[in-house]
Amino acid sequence: MQPATLPKRAEQRAHLKRVPLFADFEESELDDLLSVMKEKRFLRDATILIQRDPGESCFLIASGEVKVSLFGEDGKEIILAKLGEGEVFGEMALLSGSPRSATVIAMQDTTLLVLEREEFHKLLMRQPKIAIKILGVMADRLRKADEKIEALVLFDVSQRVTQFVLEMARKEGVQSPEGLVIRRRPTHREIANMTGTTRETVSRVLSELARGGYVSMTGKRLTVHEKLYTQGSLL
């Protein structure tokens, strides 16, 4: 890989610094890591990974957004997560090399920094502390997976959609006098795929939340009002 220009290298370091796995690395350590990473670009709707394919690399999102999905034999999609700038996916492959557990698709034009398993193992010999940090990241992923399973098993559809809206607001919302504003909310179909229900049910639940004064919607903009923070767990 050709050496990055200084502005580009500084930008890539900034991306890595936002990843919990590399947050406390020194600049020289980040440069060491970047020297073995490759940049790849994907157009919107391009498939990046396919479930059950061999896993040999990990990906950092430098820009753009992806969705992590499972597909049933009938073609039905369940969206496990949406990931954006600074987030990582495919890290299990770095340790086990096991087949991909999900399919990953670009939701917009996306640039990734790719770390191959073999290069990661060489890096691990030079920087052992990364092993401890990656275990922490994986533990966090397992916790979130457990929470998602718990929600699917214990919550009814209204609670699942409401909980999804709350989590999205906390993660992506921008504070305003009216509440937390999500400037580009997912479609009803995407929400349905992430909560294990139907598009019609999502439309009904969001309409009920709007009538109750918990949220308001204008085009792609969704505002989550404080009323939902305090009462959402009771809905």
Secondary structure layout:
Layout: H1 6-17, H2 27-34, E1 37-42, E2 47-49, E3 57-63, E4 65-71, E5 77-84, E6 88-89, H3 92-95, E7 103-106, E8 110-116, H4 117-126, H5 129-154, H6 157-172, E9 174-176, E10 179-182, H7 188-195, H8 199-211, E11 215-218, E12 221-224, H9 226-231
Antiparallel strand pairs: 1-8, 2-7, 3-6, 3-8, 4-5, 4-7, 9-10, 10-12, 11-12
Helix pairs in contact: 1-2, 6-7, 6-8, 7-8
What's the short version?
The chain has 235 residues and is α+β, with helices and mostly antiparallel strands. The chain is 44% helix and 25% strand.
Label this structure with key terms.
235 residues; alpha+beta; 4-stranded antiparallel sheet; globular
Report on the architecture of this protein:
This protein is an alpha+beta fold. About 45% of the residues lie in helices and about 25% in strands. It is built from nine helices and twelve strands. It has helices at about 5-15, 25-35, 90-95, 115-125, 130-155, 155-170, 190-195, 200-210, 225-230; strands at about 35-40, 45-50, 55-65, 65-70, 75-85, 90, 105, 110-115, 175, 180, 215-220, 220-225. The strands form three sheets. Strands 1-8-3-6 form a four-stranded antiparallel β-sheet. The protein has a four-stranded antiparallel β-sheet with strand order 2-7-4-5. Strands 9-10-12-11 form a four-stranded antiparallel β-sheet. Strand 11 and strand 12 (about 220-225) form a beta hairpin. The protein starts with 5 loop residues before the first helix and ends with a helix.
